[in-house]
Amino acid sequence: MRTFSKILTLIGSIILIGCVGYLMVGWWDEKRWAWLAIGIIVIAVNLGVVFVRLKPTPKPRDWTVDEVRAVIEPIHGELTQIRTLRRADKGLTLAKAAELVAQARISS
Questions:
Q1: Contact yes or no for 108/69 (Cβ under 8 A)
Q2: Helices 78-88 and 65-72 sit at what angle, rounded to 10 degrees?
Q3: Per-position DSSP letters for 37-106, written without gaps between them
Q4: Which of 68, 81, 82, 86 is least crowded, fewest Cβ atoms below 10 Å from its Cβ?
Q5: What is the pLDDT along the chain (108 residues), one digit of tens a residue?
Q6: Which residue from 21, 63, 18 is spatially nearest to 40, judged by alpha carbons?
Q7: CA 107/CA 72 separation, integer angstroms
Q8: Are 37 and 28 contacting, i.e. CB atoms less than 8 angstroms apart?
């Protein structure tokens, strides 16, 4: 399902870039500078969307309870521990990080 939404987002962004680019030619000829500036902003934002969607997401690593405990031990507060664990592993989902922190806190 995520792949389908990613493809639709990419197609929509590319179509929007093309349409706004086409309109910008007319705005340039008619000297509509405000609309031209808005068009440039829209294209820049959509290029950012395309870049973010095409950027590969890292795969989460397999954590043991001892490794999780070593990362979160000096940190107080469950939410801060979850955030710290997700910073250590960029591919880790929020639900999985919360589960790992809960297991590490129970077994300590």
A1: yes
A2: 110
A3: HHHHHHHHHHHHHHHHHHSPPPPPPPPPHHHHHHHHTT--SHHHHHHHHHHH-TT--HHHHHHHHHHHHH
A4: 86
A5: 578 888 999 999 999 999 999 999 999 999 999 999 999 999 999 999 999 888 887 888 888 888 888 888 888 888 899 999 998 888 888 899 999 999 888 876
A6: 21
A7: 13
A8: no
Nearest to 90 by CA among 61, 68, 70: 61
As given in the structure block, the two tokens for residue 38 are 């808005």
Q: Where along the chain do its domains lie?
A: 2-54, 65-106
Q: What is the pTM of this model?
A: 0.60
Q: Which residue has the tokens 């007319």?
A: 26
The three-class DSSP label of residue 24 is: helix
Tokens coding 41: 């902003």
Task: Determine the Cα–Cα distance for residues 43 and 21; give it in Å rounded to an integer.
Answer: 8
